[in-house]
Amino acid sequence: MMAREQHLVLSRTAPAEQSALGGSVMRRRRLVPLLVMLLLAQMAAAMVTTAVRQTPTIDEPVYVATATDYLHEHRIRYNPEHPPLGKLLIAAGVAVADPHYDPSYPGTQGDVGRHLLYESGNDPWRLMLWARLPVIALTLLFGLVAFAFAREVTGTVGGLVALALYSFSPDLIAHGSLATLDMPAAGFVLTSAWLTWRARRRPTLYLPLAGAALGAAVATKMSVLPAVPVLMGLAAVSVTVASVGSDRRRRVLTALAGVAVMALMAVAVVWASYLVVDPRLRFSPAAPVPALHGLRGRLVDLLPLPPAYRAGMRVQFAFEDQPWQGYLFGHLYTGSRWYYLPAALLVKTPLGLLVLGAAGAVAVVAVRRLRPAAPYLLLPPGVLLAAAMTGARDFGTRYALFVPVFLAVAAACVPACVPRTGRRWAAGATAALVLWTAVSSLRTFPYYLPYANEAFGGPANTHRLLHDSNVDWGQDLGRLADRLRQEGPGARVWLVYKGSGVPSYYGIRAADPRAVPADRVHGLLVVSDSAVAKARGKLAELIASSRPIGDVGHSISLYHR
Question: How confident is the model at residue 420 (pLDDT cuts 50, 70, 90)?
Fold first, then answer.
């Protein structure tokens, strides 16, 4: 009826007015793709610029070496604690770089990574850029998923809001520009949730695709396993909605069939990721795999997954049993704090995204027409965050990247939930918060890893609140070399560096101040901020008796003695 009335109105409109109206619609249709391209282009520029300037972070050499081993030796040997798919994506870039590789080199996976980058005649800058480019491309594609998901739930304006928040998120830019697994895993979970949502209309088409995306997430990082039962349950809901009108027995059987299809697709993708590496599924780990006893061990053995995957789970459980050190708001501790990740996310998420995401989460539950999307937007990140909060490693928000990813989509519900009379005010407030997020992100360029929002003092203050991959992951060794060259060749340098890079490769000639008496340490004292956070004993005394003179990339502190 509404469409017919609109047709009658248009048919009675003067030809000139019809032409103007048609031109306005066409301009709007062209404007949306242009805005999408601009948002993704700025994110791509930020990520590529960051990738070019940063030296390898702590985890990257391991992943790059493992990817290279996949290409040359076709075996599962290094890094079994993470499944192969993310490293196969990295391998696509490594294949273009075509590095020299010695498969017989002995040592740990970290040793092999450093040997590949610094001792095999390869250019680490070039190799790392090519290894990072596939993750950058995938991060941009996940931005399109966020846009599509939000647009389907709230409309085109909501889609643009979600994409803007996603593309300006410093955490997503930081980890999307690295050859690591955190961003791909979070993006695959988002994609699976979106496709499961779409299955409410066409389950036959979208549930197998949702299962493939879920399998891709599980084949990238094991930490996403808690999302599996959640998305399976949502798949059952989608099939039930799609089969409204059928009798109860048929709906139940159809829902079970849909869940089975999704599960089979997910398991098939995991197996396929191992078969791509080695069709014979050989597993020869470079380090012993710890035993896992009790209920956990029996459950792991029952999983219908490759032996190497189950071995990786044993390694992960062994990590969880170790007493790691954490650092939060200036306090160093051993063990973990359940509130660590929520607190770290408050520090490292832009305030505009926090406000809009929280308001959107409330809106999607409170507003009736948005409510069907609530479980798809809130349950996967909520369950994953709850599971991550029980973990033993308080190392950074990279363990919860799915939170800003889903928050960006949830934020799209804010402009869509306001009554017609208040839409102008809501649009202005939403635009202001999106702009605030963009400005906050641009101000931290190109130092995205140590980002903190304005309420916590910005990136220059992050090292006083958090440590490890929140601020200092070894990424600024190249910038440190540039800074030392500016200081001149006469300065004596004492270095405490936390990272996987090799300082001497970048021309840094330095000694360890902890290896000599304190009264011999004169000149420039350079300390990674994670080492500053954990400093005790002699190092703490050296720092306390030195004069701060600056920093490098907000991740390395400089002192004069």
Answer: low
Buried b (16+ CB within 10 A) or exposed e, 508-532: bebeebeeeeeeebebbbbbbbbbb
Could you tell me how many residues make up the chain?
561
pLDDT for 3 equals 43
543: helix, coil or strand? helix
Q: Which helix (H) or strand (E) holds 61?
A: helix 60-73
Average pLDDT on 539-552 reads: 94
**DSSP string across 67-88:** HHHHHHH--B-S-TTS-SHHHH
Instruction: Give the β-pairing of 493-496 and 524-528.
Output: parallel
With a cut of 70, say whether residue 348 has pLDDT above it: yes
Distance CA 297, CA 313 (A): 9
Instruction: Return the SS3 of 116.
Output: helix
- What is the pLDDT, as a whole number, of residue 1? 40
Q: Helix, strand, coil proportions of the chain in percent (round to 5)?
A: 65, 5, 25
Q: How far apart are CA 427 and CA 394, in angstroms?
A: 38
In this predicted structure, what is the pLDDT of residue 415? 86
CB 554 within 8 A of CB 459: yes
pLDDT at 14: 52
pLDDT digit string, tens, across residues 428-479? 899 999 999 999 999 999 999 999 999 999 999 999 999 999 999 999 999 9
Element (H, E) at 353: helix 351-366
Residue 526 β-bridge partners = 495, 558
Long-range contacts of 34-42 (CB under 8 A, 24+ apart): 35/160, 36/144, 36/147, 36/160, 36/163, 39/143, 39/160, 39/163, 39/164, 39/167, 40/140, 40/143, 40/144, 40/163, 40/167, 42/167, 42/168
**Separation between Cα atoms, residue 432 and residue 419, nearest integer Å:** 19
Four-point Cα dihedral 223, 226, 232, 233, nearest 10: -150
Buried b (16+ CB within 10 A) or exposed e, 362-396: ebbeebeebeebbbbbbbbbbbbbebbbebebbbb
Poorest-confidence range of 220-224, 449-453, 498-502? 498-502
Q: What is the pLDDT of residue 491?
A: 79
Residue 6's pLDDT is what?
44
Which are the contacts of 261, defined by CB distance < 8 A and separation ≥ 6?
207, 208, 211
27 φ, ψ to 5°?
A: -65, -40
CB 62 within 8 A of CB 81: no
SS (H, E, C) 266-317: HHHHHHHHHHHHCCCCCECCCCCCCCCCHHHHHHHHHCCCCHHHHHHHHHHH
Task: State the average pLDDT over residues 271-294.
Answer: 94
Question: Do 453 and 440 meet the contact criterion of CB atoms below 8 Å apart?
Answer: yes
Q: Beta-carbon neighbour count of residue 181 at 10 Å?
A: 24
Q: From edge to edge, which strands make up the β-sheet containing 493-496?
A: 493-496, 524-528, 556-560, 547-552
pLDDT tier at 27, thresholds 50, 70, 90 = low
Rounded distance between C-alpha atoms, residue 149 and residue 138, angstroms: 16
